[in-house]
Amino acid sequence: MDGAPVRQPEEGEDVALLDSVAGRDQAAFTVLFDRYGGPVLGFLTRMLGDRSEAEEVLQETFFQVWEQADRYRPERASPRSWIYLLARSRALDRIRSRTSRQRRESEEAVGGIGLYAAAAGPGTDVESRVDATRLLAALQEEQRQCVELSFFQGLSLSQIAERLEVPLGTVKSRYLYGMRKLRAAWAERS
């Protein structure tokens, strides 16, 4: 480039684009996506901490823009603010869903195993810590590693995948198989 400043779109241009999108103008939608797709993706990546998940939420966001452009009201927000608000809302839904799913999976998988109590630290009785050690010894190394990182360090499955540098699906499988083995080992112990 010749060093000339990049021209920022005027709000009126974006309002006109959204009006056109409401009329199902694909070219206007493409211009709007080209203008805001990159910045919104950056925002979502920072918010979610995972680029692939951010890309999915970006698609959901712009699908919502396409479907609901007729609901946009310029007196309530600028087009830019409206798009970011949609993106933020989708990301918060994703975070809530992820947290709820992880909590539910942990509760279901534990099924009464006192691992949280065993991990409590110095105040935990020796027998509970020995039980937890025996239970974890029943797992394959990869399974044990995933379970320990989840329970003892509080990492999400996505964070575990990043730390271990393995695909998220692999971590999910190791974690769930490990939790099933723990449940079976706990049942045998009782």
Give an overview in words.
The protein has 190 residues and is mainly alpha-helical. Helix content is 76%, strand content 0%. The chain contains 9 helices and no strands.
What percentage of amino acids are in beta strands? under 5%
Number of H- or I-type helical stretches: 9
Order of helices and strands: HHHHHHHHH
Radius of gyration: 24 Å
Estimate percent helicity.
over 70%
Measure the end-to-end span: 73 Å
**How confident overall, as mean pLDDT?**
80
What is the molecular shape?
A: elongated
Structural class per helix/strand content? mainly alpha
* Largest sheet report: none
Residue runs with pLDDT of under 50 for 5 or more positions: 111-126
Strand elements, count: 0
List the helices and strands and how they pair.
Blueprint: H1 11-22, H2 26-48, H3 51-68, H4 79-110, H5 115-118, H6 126-137, H7 141-153, H8 157-164, H9 168-189
Helix pairs in contact: 1-2, 2-3, 2-4, 3-4, 4-9, 7-9, 8-9
Main attributes?
about 75% helix; about 190 residues; mainly alpha; single chain
